[in-house]
Amino acid sequence: MKRAEIYLVNFGKKYNSEFGKIRPALIIQNDIANRNIDKVSFKGVTVIPMTTFIAGGDVRVKIGARENLEKESEVCINEMCTLELSRIKIEKCLTVLTASEMNEVNSKILWHLGLVNN
Predict the structure, then answer these.
(1) CA 25 to chain centre
(2) Going by DSSP bridges, is the β-strand pair 95-96/60-63 parallel, antiparallel, or unpaired?
């Protein structure tokens, strides 16, 4: 599992406006943490859920259908969260974002967290 890869993730039962069900999600956590996850007791992985409801905007990045990602989707930057590793189906990577796509994700994360001005 590496940063920029997309896997199916079990977000569990939907609660109010939170994302629920099994859906694709982008691994956003750094690769040092990803490589060492078996060596720590808390096996949390920071991910960003995706949706096929295309809305655009400042906190969305569109990813076209390709490889094992069956439908055009958007990465929902404002829904970034940390989940237990066991919720991620790491047996099958759906796709990997390009450098250009990751640059857009990174820029929108910085904006969303208030680390840069838009």
Answers:
(1) 4
(2) unpaired
CB 29 within 8 A of CB 46: yes
Closest by Cα among 86, 88, 25, 91 to 52? 25
Q: What was the pLDDT predicted at 32?
A: 96
CA dihedral 102, 104, 9, 95 (to 10 degrees): -50
Tell me the per-residue pLDDT of 61-98, one tens digit each, with 9 for 90 and over: 999 999 999 999 999 999 999 999 999 999 999 999 99
Q: How many CA atoms lie within 13 A of 11 on its CB side?
A: 24
Domain ranges within the chain, ordered by starting residue: 5-112
Q: Which architecture characterizes domain 5-112 according to CATH? A: Roll (2.30)
